[in-house]
Amino acid sequence: MAPLYIRIHARDNVGIVVNAEGVTPGAEFASGLRAAEAIPQSHKIALQDLEPGEPILRYGTPIGFANRAIRAGSWVREEFMRMPEAPGLENLPLSTAVPPDLPPLTGVTFQGYRNPHGTVGTRNILGITTTVQCVAPTVDYAVARIRAELLPRFPNVDDVVAITHTYGCGVAIDAPGAAIPIRTIRNISHNPNIGGAPLVVSLGCEKLQPARLFSSDFPVLDESGVIRLQDQHGFAGTVTAILYAAEKKLAELNLRRRETCPASDLVVGMQCGGSDGFSGVTCNPAVGEATDLLVRAGATAMFSEVTEVRDAAHLITARAATPEIAQDFIREMRWYDEYLAQGRADRSANTTPGNKRGGLANIVEKAMGSVAKSGTTALRGVASHGERVTTKGLVFAATPASDFICGTLQLAASMNMHVFTTGEGSPYGLALVPVIKVSSRTALKEKWPDLIDLDAGVIATGESTIQQTGAALFQMILDVASGRKKTWAEQWKLHNALAMFNPGPVT
Ligand code: CA
């Protein structure tokens, strides 16, 4: 392959090297530019001479300022630039550039499981909620028995999943921060992929008493569904009680059938993990395209990861459908700024060694690539950490960028499909929702053919376009949601543990 770089925006003064093996010193590009040194794939090359103090432009936006003279053709690395400040939250534009609605896509459907309270599942799962970590090993033991002894008799049920976590006791349960893990556990227990009310297993003496999980939103969950270990006769008696209750539930769930549902019943969570310099060129824009298609079809498309949108706050608030929605977004940014400041950190703590190896110099460059997942439509709603999302269209659900915590909070937000982009590679998966993994580079798909569901690297090489790959992802979402197709993470049962976000104190 001839030496090739991608310039993302016409104003950019750096390009991204596309060649899998990188480029060698003296390599000549079609533009006549010569590489001054060896530059690895997905890293940046200076397209012109840059003076000290000059902005380094990618996505048409300064991702840094040169702290030395940089010659055209040089490898532009993190240590060559000073990072810009995050945009202030005081004078952001509020709904000043609301995009007009895109033409609707009518008649798009999938096959789903209708729930009594209006949501629709893409899987038919028996959920077992727990109120405290003390009961988790007992529940895990019972779940293994249910899978082996009961589930084969109920072929219309996809799985039985224990909602275990480290929360529930040894915490300041009435502190303001506790509201987040409590509502997270409550809302995950009612994720659309859990058919009917979940079983609840409690210890008895814990801080998180089962009643805290009941809600007038979900009248189906009450005291009758609770098994308290401290009321049971020994380990064997407890396991028998759980198996007995599970068998009754499984018989009910087994009667459910998929029905034709409008695409508006989809709640698709978008996330990235292990990003590289290509993520913002290939997979994230392709996800953005799929996001636009979902919005046009009436679905909810959700993006998250506060520290990865913080540097694009001014772009998001301008896109908010109303000033109130923009203010909701700013409220979440401010809360997270303060949360990080308490730990003497800021959003720059986000980038990982893998991100940097993959060519991302800093959080500004990462964020500008990350927000591409949100597509181009107006922002219709904002949810705080662990809150349910009920708005259709593009919504922001506040979460940390940590893959497992983000996935956990998106499940609480009522995600029933998940899309995960990766450049460096992650085998990430969740038990409660199908996860479609999209690679930023073809080399990753070739290395991990049995983990990556869709390769967006073909966009960089010109074999496909953002539009074509985005449309392929949209179709894959419908196929997986309908149960016609399984993701690799489902095939191998790769289930990362739930990870609660607990900003409150432990005792
Ligand atoms: Ca992430």
Quickly list its features:
507 residues; alpha/beta; Archaeosine Trna-guanine Transglycosylase, Chain: A, domain 4; 3 domains; four-stranded antiparallel sheet; binds calcium ion
Explained architecture:
- The structure is a single chain.
- 27% of the residues lie in helices and 17% in strands.
- It has helices spanning 136-150, 179-188, 234-253, 283-296, 306-309, 313-319, 323-342, 353-357, 363-370, 403-412, 442-447, 466-481, 488-491, and strands at 5-6, 14-17, 44-46, 55-58, 61-66, 75-76, 81-82, 109-114, 120-121, 125-130, 159-163, 199-202, 226-228, 259-262, 267-272, 300-303, 379-383, 393-397, 417-422, 435-439, 454-455.
- Helix 2 crosses helix 10.
- The strands form 5 sheets. The protein has a 7-stranded parallel sheet, with helices on both faces. A 4-stranded antiparallel sheet has the order 1-2-3-6, with no helix packed on it.
- It is globular.
- The chain folds into 3 domains: 1-82, Archaeosine Trna-guanine Transglycosylase, Chain: A, domain 4 (Roll); 125-253; 261-273 and 286-492, no CATH class.
- The chain is built from 13 helices and 21 strands.
- It is α/β, with parallel strands linked by helices and 507 residues long.
- The mean pLDDT is 95.
- Helix 11 (442-447) links the parallel strand 20 (435-439) and strand 21.
- The structure holds calcium ion.
- Residues 271-273, 305, 401, 403, 406 line the site of calcium ion.
